[in-house]
Predict the 3D structure of the following.
Amino acid sequence: MRPTLTKRKKAVIALGDLAPFDEEAKNILNAVAETSEIYHRIPESDLAREVADANAVILAQPILTRRVIESSRSLEIVVRFGVGIDNVDLKAATERGIIVANFPEMLTEPVAEHAILLMLAVARNLTLADRSARQGYWNDFARGLRTELWKKKLGIIGFGRIGASIAAKGRLAFDMAVLVYDHCNRCHERIMAAGFTPSSLEELLRQSDVVCLATPLTEESLGVIGKGELKMMKKTAILINISRGRVVNETALYEALKNGELAGAGLDVLATEPPKTDDPLLSLDNVVLTPHCSAHTREMFKRLSLGCAETIVRYFHGEELRPPASIVNPEAIKKRAA
């Protein structure tokens, strides 16, 4: 991939508000690079200064804009602390021969588990139940009726690794019938091979009792659930979003939930994170919110920290990157070699 390491490098660990980078992983990285760490959200100009002389960046929440990328004199590789690359200007990185790598498999199971958690929490109105129990309204809440997931119809939008895992868990745990929509035509055969039913978006929305968004944020998925799509859904249906906030028109979602056109929603992601204190979705009892933490388990954090450190060490030693790491922009390798 590149010449063998001849001098000590510099790596920036930019995790934003996440927990500290794993110590074992940091020791592995420190063997080949001096490291600096960022554990807060910083302005673009400050981030540009931090990465100006870095050879590698491990990136979670901060945004690597074109300005930040072009301010760097020596950046060679960006390793995403996760899967999504919507906080990296991939075009700018590729133009400068900067490799961007991610870990498409590591987050699958914890995120899929979290989707099931949100389904149950909304169906059983868990947050209101907890509040009622703590405040002494024991019998008042007990008189209300909640919803089962057993043998309901589950609609999955997006059939990547996470979507496929959610579908399998819904079927295995709750005997749910599963419909799947993915804008990628090549997914049709994979959906069939997994034993699920490919569906049009309209059919999925009209039939499903639970609709789960598991699609990456792309031009096709941006705003895929809007006012019209919400009106297609059953009034008893639940919407789950563990993908990205901007795949949903949140104004339309609020109106549907407030007016009883939708039973409830479980949201791990929002268009603006963290949300403003006056965000109307925060005022609804039929919404369960978690702070973009679906993948945040002890086990995942350890795996991902080690994966990021080992990927950078391999790169600095001139070795090919290998799974579970994946290069998002292989064109950058050719650009660097030119």
